[in-house]
Amino acid sequence: MDRLEGAARLMIVSDLDSTMVDHLDPENLSLLRFNALWEAFYRDNSLLVYSTGRSPTSYKQLKIKKPLLTPDVTIMSVGTEIMYGESMVPDAEWECYLNQKWNRDIVTGETAKFPELTPQVSNAQEELLEWYSENAKNNHQITHATERCAAGIIQAIGTFSLGPNVSPRDIRDSLKCTVEICNPGHEVVKFYLFYERWRRGEVERSDHFINNLRLLFNSMGTFVHPSGIEIPFSQCIDELANSYGDQLGMQFRVWVDRVSVAQICSDTWLVKFDKCELCGKDRERRVTTVLLSSRHAELPREFMWIYMHQTWLDGLFSGGEDQRPWLF
């Protein structure tokens, strides 16, 4: 919460199951579309809150299965547990407040006297739609999204004119995806979308894309691999060029999380984020630091990548010894 200097531009509070997360979407495309939109345009000045009936343990299990972004606040166990940030620091004051005069045994004993009481339903979507039809159909401050789950959240952002509502994932030529105001966060989202699509063979295998990368990455720039080895950008681009379609037909997805931007001088930005990669059953997360410059950019309205450093995020690399090419 302390990462924002002032009031949040936007705060989204969302349930998880069948709201942010679509369990009927095995490719998680709806969620990945939201991820790209949030990290490109909102992470730097807005708040993301998950409010779920799941316990902390159940929530962590869901995070392993689904490409969920790191929220600023996580409200769990139907509002009885509140935690903050990546480290999930508990709200001790809220816990103490709820614990005052609370006795679970008394509550369960009393409720057992009323057989008409039934456990909470796992999904109240039908009841919610019925309530909407009867009470809110003509209320312009409440919208019924026609798209599912996270895609419906994107739709609502557009309906209420809350800000950008076109996900970078919806732009097929990622490297040509431009915005009115140059945004370092958008830059890293845009690059890793291209990275994913190139390796999945979803874009044309053209020298145009690789030559464009050579303009975006400083010819003297360096990539520090998580192993500690320093590699010239030029070598990384060559490796990427040779990796076209190596994930064709595979369950391969890439997204960025926790993008933070610091302007260190008039034309240079330090960007930190987690690069997350799903490859089959293996999943890895690299803490990434990038130096971007607008002064040295050879293309208009673009940034030049000057330096990149990555480290493994402990406990989130599930593959074996890394024998792959030196890719970003």
TrEMBL record:
Domain Sucrose phosphatase-like residue range list? 9-120, 121-160
Any GO BP annotation: sucrose biosynthetic process
Pinpoint the Sucrose-phosphatase C-terminal domain residues. 184-313
Q: Which InterPro entries does the record cross-reference, listed alphabetically?
A: HAD-like_sf, HAD_sf, NTF2-like_dom_sf, SPP-like_dom, SPP_C, Sucrose_Phosphatase
Keywords linked to the UniProt accession: Hydrolase
One Gene Ontology molecular-function label: sucrose-phosphate phosphatase activity
Q: Which Pfam families match?
A: S6PP, S6PP_C
| Protein name per Swiss-Prot or TrEMBL | Sucrose-phosphate phosphatase
Q: Which organism is it from?
A: Corymbia citriodora subsp. variegata
